[in-house]
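Colleagues,

Please find the record for the two-part complex below.
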Amino acid sequence: MTLSAFRFGPLSIPLEQVFLVSKLSYALVNLKPVSPGHVLVATRRPVSRFNDLTQLEVLDLFTQAQRVSKVVERVTKAESLTLCIQDGAKAGQSVPHVHLHVIPRFEGDFANNDDIYDAMAHQPRVDNPERTPRSPEDMAAEAQNLRQEIGSSWNEEEAL
Amino acid sequence: MTLSAFRFGPLSIPLEQVFLVSKLSYALVNLKPVSPGHVLVATRRPVSRFNDLTQLEVLDLFTQAQRVSKVVERVTKAESLTLCIQDGAKAGQSVPHVHLHVIPRFEGDFANNDDIYDAMAHQPRVDNPERTPRSPEDMAAEAQNLRQEIGSSWNEEEAL
């Protein structure tokens, strides 16, 4: 059996956009990043709420998030990170599948600190040209780079 | 030995403001909540960055966060939660000690969805009267209520 895609709510994420896979979690690049380097860590199991996670899923999601946050900070030369789960629709969750946003932060990266939250909630501001969807090639290249940086030796058989 | 306070960065949090204690984490009410029910879950060990946490700390912090989020959602009758770690100063972290914000969310709770992030970053808007510090009595009463709701049977000796 060969993995060909990962489920993300109602969406299907191609392998090319995934840069880390563990037994219970996977990390993916973003179609509409808030800023360059903004990636997601999701559970393999498609559940919508944080409280739906088992202890093993909690442990796996956040230890993989540590690996991801470390490499994102190194690659983007960020000094801080916003780590956020929009847990439910009223919190701005757009895909009903538990996922952690990992967003590199810099001094003065947003005109207002709160712009990042607005962007994260998928409510692009009309004056923000960066919120156009990226090309599949661009996303695949980013994932490929992160895969190498993270030293990801994921084995499809093992991950299944 | 009796616990009299918990360390939170350079601050000391009195027991009255703590409503859940585990071996490696504790949950506390907020001096300046973004909205009623906004609480924090922190590590016992005073480290500043998410990547400083051990696997055991990661597991404990987020499984306790599940207990906390469940009770916050029930008590406030919220339908969603914002779960966020400001990981580093450039991400708006005001106390250099790993802590997860648990914020109940409702339809139309903020004029703009992004106001919550601004508030979380401790940049109170001048027109927001809710951002004044609360009284110790008010905070103790909230913690007492949450302690009962969560069925917290924390034992000081055990927690130490």
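Chain B is about 30% helix and 25% strand.

Comments are welcome before we finalize the supplementary table.
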